[in-house]
Structure of SDR family oxidoreductase:
Amino acid sequence: MPGVLAGKAVVITGAGRGLGEAYARLAAAEGASVVVNDVDSAAAASVAGAIGALADDSDIATWTGAGRLIDNCRRAYGRVDGLVNNAGLFRLADPREQDPEEFRRVLEVNLLGTAYCGLHAIRAMLEQGGAGSVVNVTSGSQSGAAALAAYGASKGGVASLTWCWAADLAGTEVRVNAVSPNAHTRMADAFERHLGARARGQNVGKPPASNAPAVVYLLSEAAAGISGRIVRVDGDELSLVQPPRTAVAVRLPEWTVAAVAEAFAGDLRQQP
Ligand SMILES: NC(=O)c1ccc[n+]([C@@H]2O[C@H](COP(=O)([O-])OP(=O)(O)OC[C@H]3O[C@@H](n4cnc5c(N)ncnc54)[C@H](O)[C@@H]3O)[C@@H](O)[C@H]2O)c1
């Protein structure tokens, strides 16, 4: 039986290890022609060699690097049908000490890299006949977590980008979704080391491979019509993440500081 991605050309960023490698392996097994991107060129070459894919070591955090990556896919396979914006940097820092250059680099890779690859790919998809699937990668940290300001903000930006692009592309056959994965990788190890005694082993027993079917589904035609969704994979649970929305509203009799304080002492007090 042909795989669900037979005939499709798919680019996966940061696919030299971890979750990206798992997405690349399943995409190839499902029949896709894959570009394995990773700034770690040896890692990209090793995964690409193992699955018969094309290796690419562009830095996706630059406009030209992202453009070269999408061009390499079009040159090798004649088109680009799918993009998984998986490459990411994970940095932990206390705001009292955080290095501003490091903050910038996290946003450059996680948010701008996703935007740059997405813009190049969306334009190519629209130009080649109008169909395609972009899968971004966000994280539960977008809702707030200590020591994760740069990383969480970058992933919150990716979530907003996903909802905005889905709105932009409504009415076309280019779909934009995201996944919020959970797996035991070197990134998860770094977080556990940081947490020390407070670590809860939340990634333990969650292999990267179990996150791949949701990504391959979103890339495939089985997901036709699905756009603007953020899909959370956590162990054996599959769920949808909602855009932020108003949780509770009160009407004030007058706009004074005292009236706002009264609202916080009343109905708004219960909100986390
Ligand atoms: N592991 C988890 O539980 C988890 C949870 C939520 C989100 N994520 C996200 O999933 C993605 C993959 O995470 P992982 O755990 O496999 O991490 P990882 O560190 O194991 O792999 C990330 C890969 O991205 C590559 N990369 C980094 N910067 C790049 C750049 N500028 N250009 C090209 N490649 C680059 C790295 O070389 C590395 O191979 C990341 O976006 C991460 O934020 C992971």
